[in-house]
Design brief:
Elements (H helix, E strand, L loop, with lengths): L1 H17 L16 H26 L10 H6 L2 H36 L5 H34 L5 H8 L1 H12 L5 H25 L1
Organism: Debaryomyces fabryi
Main location: membrane
Keywords: Membrane, Transmembrane, Transmembrane helix
Length: 210
């Protein structure tokens, strides 16, 4: 749980360093680092996501079996084939229901509450209205492949560790999107614009040097 919290904090720190213009301090040349924001991410990771993740990925999800495989097929097929069919079914169930109905709403509600808003549910609902679909579709581009490999090859007791290692970039994305001044696809455009401007500044500096 501590490791999960540290990695959520690392993801937020990366988001603040890579995209400082996403802060509210747009009038400052160098926005200050928000340590409280990182602390909130660590609390969410340690106290909320980690326990729920262990319960779902470590205990509940491995028990789910593919209902489309008959008992006779389970007896005659090889263990690897049965395991593969069960794994694919688990990934489908996980990705269809858990991110959109559990992880994304929970993240927004908890982070809005920890931020000290007067009406955290209203703030969370507003953010979900603008970002829920964008986060969910991005999730489908990142996690199904990882989950397929994780559920098929990685032992149950090591799955959370593997997910934590691969989640730093995802945590960075969540932190950026939640704390952003814009929403949805507009923030993706902001990231691209920020990277383009950075490249232009590098080119101008190179021209001056030469």
């Amino acid at each position: 749980m501590v490791t999960t919290g540290l990695l959520f904090g690392l993801g937020d720190g990366v988001a603040q360093m890579l995209f400082p213009l996403n802060h509210d301090h747009l009038d400052e040349e160098k926005p200050t680092y928000n340590g409280y924001r990182t602390m909130r991410a660590m609390i969410y990771g340690s106290c909320f996501f980690a326990p729920c993740g262990v319960l779902w990925y470590g205990k509940r999800l491995p028990l789910i079996k593919n209902p489309f495989i008959s008992a006779k097929s389970r007896e005659t097929w090889s263990k690897n084939r049965v395991h593969l069919y069960d794994t694919v079914y688990r990934v489908v169930i996980d990705q269809l229901f858990i991110p959109g109905l559990v992880w994304i709403p929970m993240y927004n509600i908890v982070m809005s509450t920890l931020s000290g808003h007067e009406n955290p549910l209203e703030v969370a609902f507003h953010k979900l209205q603008h970002n829920w679909w964008n986060v969910l579709t991005t999730n489908w581009m990142v996690w199904p492949g990882f989950q397929l490999v994780s559920l098929f090859y990685i032992p149950v007791h090591l799955r959370i560790v593997a997910a934590n290692i691969c989640s730093v970039g995802w945590n960075c994305f969540l932190s950026y999107l939640y704390n952003g001044k814009m929403h949805g696809n507009h923030q993706k455009e902001e990231i691209l614009d920020h990277l383009v401007h950075s490249e232009e500044e590098i080119e101008e500096t190179t021209m001056v040097v030469y």
